[in-house]
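agent> step 3/5: call structure_predict on target 'DNA polymerase IV' (Hufsiella ginkgonis).
agent> reason: downstream docking stage needs a structural representation; sequence fetched in step 2, passing through unchanged.
tool.input:
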Amino acid sequence: MDQPSAPVVRKIIHIDMDAFYASVEQRDNPEYRGKPIVVGGSPEGRGGVVATASYEARKFGVKSAMSSKKAQQLCPQAIFIRPRFAVYKEVSNHIREIFSRYTDLIEPLSLDEAFLDVTSDKAGIGSAIDIAKAIKAAIKAELQLTASAGVSVNKFVAKTASDMNKPDGLTFIGPSSIGTFMEKLPVEKFFGVGKVTAGKMKSLHLFTGADLKKLPEQELVRHFGKPGRFYYQIVRGIDNRRVQPDRETKSVGAEDTFAFDLTTLEEMNPELEKLSVIVSKRLEKNEIKGRTITVKIKYADFKQITRGTSLATAVNDADAIARVSKSLLAATFEENQRVRLLGVSLSNFKEPDLKRSAKDPSVLLLFPE
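tool.output (status=ok):
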């Protein structure tokens, strides 16, 4: 009788470019090298948020998605640069071509990071560590940029590993090391655990993976809902998600939970504007536009609703997103409501199938005549 075959141990690499936009700007503009560069936003005028900061700026605490004004307060000497998304896209395509020399199983997460499944690599190298080294070397030689790599047996651990030794790092976490690694990992380092969730975990005296591991699955679900099941699996190094080539982006969004409940539109509208800027930057980064705008509202009693609308044309600019989001919120708002979370997202990235009017060919129709 044949014995069941052992499960295949995957070889997963997560590649994350180092301060991508800022590094491209420093590469192309020698006068920026060694200086604190902030790509995106401006401390004057409409402001905006930071898309990427160079490592020189990060030393002062400047981070992605931070407001430009806050970035300037932390680093007054920072140089603010308008993003050149066409250039970043071209560089990203070159990086993708380098990936494809080793595998066709490539799952891009954005212009500057991706998962690669090299369990069976095209070059016949065999070692995922050697493949990661070769990719990093090619990126440096051909593009004069650096990348950090994480290598492991699943996506979660590989992604976490890629952030362990930045910039220009390479971290391998093998099967025998995953348990110890996850137990020592601070909860805020878990992918998907934001500031609010991390704060809640710490209030429950859950500071590391080892602390999370002590709780049964049912208790994690009781405290954190469905994500509790994910935490239960991940802290044990279990992640069966496959690398998905050509993953299609379904929606792009951002949300925020507030330290204090908001009770008026005057308090909520500026928050929607901030979220709209973040969403706009993410859309621009991926060079996409969306037609359907959705607002997510969570009340103090944890009741949650969403309201959305579809536009005639796709958009990605912050003003349009904010304008529609505020109108959606106003249509649902009632006095004495206490809101603890707001979210904004865009979806429906395909343009509608427009037809021209038979009566006037210069007119495009959303619906048949």
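agent> step 4/5: record observation. Residues 179-234 form a domain with the DNA polymerase; domain 1 fold (CATH 1.10.150.20).
agent> proceeding.
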